[in-house]
Amino acid sequence: MKDQSLRAFIDGLPTPDERRRAMLIAAAASALLPFAAPAHAAVEIEGVDLPETVTAYGKKLILNGAGVRKRGYFKADVTALYLPEKRTTAEAIYKLDGIRRIQLNILREFTSSTISRIFLSDFKQSATEEEFKKLIGPIGQIGMAYSNVKRVVKGDVVNLDWVPGMGWMATHNGKQLSIDGGQPLAINDELAFQIYLRMYIGPAAPEDLRNGLLGLTKLNRVPD
């Protein structure tokens, strides 16, 4: 039907020159189509669609990779890593300038106490003893922000971002996490966020999750 409509449009043009130009444009466009990426291509994992790009704090970020994070036998969330530019090593990601985002697409319910306990355990495992002691203040703020969430359920989205000049920011379903008194969470300590990244792409992270986030695992890409 589309080809017939195009043909009718071209035949209806008033002059041979206009019809010839329209045919050339249509042919060129047709030749390019097989090489054009879908405008809204996404990655699908566990029923969660992840866009190829997102806009965070006015900046475009690219999906670097994704994977499923597990807790024991249970699938906890689909984790996605968005960066200004793609990188395939943890060291390159730690050094990357600009906004970096860890996105958690929740797959099961967790209470705030469970979230805080898991975070504290993973953070401590990923930090040296000296780093952990140095970051007691920021760790307390993050724990406080998590406790204000109360619970997360399947379908919720948590974004944890490093924003230069602002610090470590976090949102739950688009609402910014806050600490006591309703003050928005903003931890201007890059080491704290670096250790948070280690929880997902560092040596202590599960290999399948780390490889997925580093873009080393082939993902199921589907058109939007």
Can you describe what's shown?
- By secondary structure, this protein is an alpha+beta fold.
- It has two domains: 2-35, no CATH class; 42-222, Chalcone isomerase (3-Layer(bba) Sandwich).
- The chain is built from eight helices and twelve strands.
- Strand 1 (42-45) and strand 2 form a beta hairpin.
- It is globular, with a radius of gyration of 23 Å.
Would you summarize the structure shown here?
With 224 residues, the chain is of the alpha+beta class. It has helices at residues 2-11, 16-32, 90-95, 112-126, 129-134, 136-147, 190-201, 207-213; strands at 42-45, 48-51, 53-56, 59-71, 74-83, 100-106, 110-111, 151-152, 157-163, 167-172, 175-176, 221-222. The protein has eight helices and twelve strands.
Task: Write down the overall mean pLDDT.
Answer: 83
- Decide which structural class fits the backbone: alpha+beta
> What kind of assembly state do the chains in view correspond to?
single chain
Strand order across the largest sheet = 3-4-5-6-9-10-11
C-alpha-based Rg, rounded: 23 Å
Number of helices: 8
Which regions have little confidence, pLDDT < 50, spanning 5+ residues?
Answer: 1-6, 21-39
- Name the helicity range: 25-40%
Name of the top-level CATH class of the largest domain: Alpha Beta
Strand content: 25-35%
SSE topology string: HHEEEEEHEEHHHEEEEHHE
Instruction: Report how far the terminal alpha carbons are from each other.
Output: 22 Å
CATH topology of the largest domain: Chalcone isomerase
Number of domains: 2
Instruction: Give a count of the beta strands, DSSP E runs of length 2 or more.
Output: 12
The main pleated sheet reads as: 7 strands, antiparallel
Note the overall shape. globular
